[in-house]
User: Fold these one by one.
Assistant:
Number 1:
Amino acid sequence: MFFGFVGLFNLLLLWPGFLLLHYTGFEAFQLPTQLVWTYILINGLIGTVLSEFLWLWGCFLTSSLIGTLALSLTIPLSILADICMQKVRFSWLFFAGAVPCFSPSSLRLSCAITTTGTRCWWD
């Protein structure tokens, strides 16, 4: 609901800025081309509809906890894919910041998968 209000406030309060920037010449406003509209539509369908459908299906097959925790692993897995497929090199500082983000979700996911009850190995 928060992001809905962010969009609503942007729609109601920030649109006069488009007119101001356009007519003062700081930023030229033009409508997207047909090709750009096609890309926006494909991105919306694949990036939003398909990903939401797959997440809900995963929650249906497992649980909402595992679905949400698996969703939080997309960022570390995309980092790994960049390293393996694109040969991207990250500095040690990047990994030092990624470890605190990755560790809690991976520990909780391993706890949710390996145990049958609600207790984990650290409980």
Note: Residues 34-61 form the longest helix (28 residues).
Number 2:
Amino acid sequence: MAQSVHSVADGLRPIGSHCIHKLRDRANLEEAARALLKHLGELKRPYLTQVEEKLLSLIEQEFGV
């Protein structure tokens, strides 16, 4: 069975392109944001969905990364 490869063209972003761990270390991070980042960091797939990407972008904007 061939493994599916996702790309930016699919609307899916590689997880490695984000500073999830850097964001999680910020002292002023709210509990809900920290929980979401923890979940994203534990994903077993190497990409983010469009919704996950939007949520991560919002956290980055809110906490100045």
Note: The chain has one domain: 11-62.
